[in-house]
Amino acid sequence: MGTALVYHEDMTEARLLWEDPECEIESPERLTTALERLQQHGLEQRCLRLTAREASEAELGLVHSPEYVALLRGTQALGTRELQALSRQYDAIYFHPSTFHCARLAAGAGLQLVDAVLTGAVHNGLALVRPPGHHSQRAAANGFCVFNNVALAAKHAQEKHGLHRILIVDWDVHHGQGIQYTFEDDPSILYFSWHRYEHGRFWPYLRESNADSVGQGQGRGFTVNLPWNQFDPELVLVAAGFDSAIGDPEGQMQATPECFAHLTQLLQVLAGGRVCAVLEGGYHLESLSQSVCMMVQALLGDPAPRLLGPMVPHHSALESIQSVRAAQAPHWTSLQQEGPVPIPSPSNHSPEGKPSTLLPGGSEFKTAAAQTAAALSSLLDQLCLQPTPPVRMAVALTSLGAGLVLPPDVLCEKGSAPQEETQAWARLHEALAKDEALTALGKVLYLLDGILDGQVSSGIAATPAPAAAATLDVAIRRGLSQGAQRLLCVAVGQLDRPSDLADDGRNLWLNIRSKEAAALSMFHVSVPLPATTGGFLNCVLALVLPLAYGFQPDLVLLALGPAHGLQDPQAALLAALLRVPAGGRVLALVDAESTPQLAGVLARVLCGEAPPSLGPFSMASPEDTQALMYLRGQLEPHWKMLQVAAPV
Hints:
single chain, 16 strands, seven-stranded parallel β-sheet, alpha/beta
């Protein structure tokens, strides 16, 4: 299985036939430029290319009224003046004689992608479509959107494939009110949207775009946000708008293209990796095309480029997260464990009154565009898709050979570091003197050098239990001496931090399964292994991942030592998430007594596959929650990313 790319050149036929500064940015070049960039980077060639089909009128009826579909069908015979008059009846819409055909293709592409993923033909994919869809409603076009492509895909997955839990993630800069209206009373669809709101002063200027809009009837609590594993989706649909990307005239935001690779990879740990993305907004052609490439690269399983720059959340983002938690807490028991969440007052930095909208083509828009052009050009010149290493994944697991099932493109490494070099490192520890430990150490060093040299993306190596701590110590020192600037070590099990390891900011030690929670410094953290699914998720999502993003490692050592206590799905989730902030550079050290199944699942997630489900959700124990809250209190002044993710 692979990644599908669904497209049809006919979707470029519709275009604006009269002057309209607001609508002129929704142009055919949005698709052609993105496709050309995918081809230039060799990404289209790696995908399964599917030619989009038209959605039938019966399929359109899953979301839209017969009268609205008939109205759109009639636009095929209208002249320019009639099309312009009809367009004026809607907000930010233009019609063309080809609009009905293009919009049916866009809707059909989403249905086709869902079919391909849910039948197992592919693992995930992107529908590269226009017109977009998430603003479209049952009987109204809106915001460049004609048919609601993602809502139709969700209804299709329910009706044809019998799905009961679908997560829709909408990261377009504008609220997708059309999707929200469609599913606001449906508890089987979780709609999660993050968008600019500005306290109702950003288009579409709707009160129901706020955090306290949580759905209606049986669907209350299924709009906006909740801890994902309590929902456990069977499919993830992404309304993939790229108008929050840097340089975009609509969003006027600063998201760099690699952000979308990170968002995609974080979503791929859900629903067994069944992710179907459908293009929505994005109107700066270069920024859009780069962002689309980043997303497709992530869907293909390639490591995401590391995020650079200070990782400090903005006050307004923290305010929004707190508002969402307060609104959702009555509907989700996992959000109630912390107690009442205070509802923040609106930021005093918010603008007063309705802001002046920068209409594309207007003088203010042109001025704003010129101000960002130089910075954007510089950024995109520096930004390049990370070349896939010659070997994505290598393993040195001779002791685990029996019953070990690996992905087909994994290299079984037989090389070893030079004997003299290995022996020199082994002299640091008596435990490495034995032949078995010395042989394992040579393979670890060889694999580590391959990762640091860019020849291998990630790796797994087995170490004898008596030499696990000593091998990890050597791996840390070797990594730091061979070019790693920031090394994150996540040690699970009976593994102590080397006593003479410098606390100089170049390494962050995080031990899971210690006897008690402790933060001996901002770079030396220990936490007990939680006993429940909810407790483990809290530990990973509210401690490990924020620390990893805040530290910005260029190498991660994940050591599963003696008595590590992790179940295979837990170890896989931990590895999958650590892979994202590290640009894929992860070396996993496993106990030689581990099962082949553990090594196999780690190899799959480090190759970009989804981890297996953790199983039924169970709440974190009060003891685990207390330990986590204590650590967060100690560490939050030093690691600002901890403010973003609170325990659930």
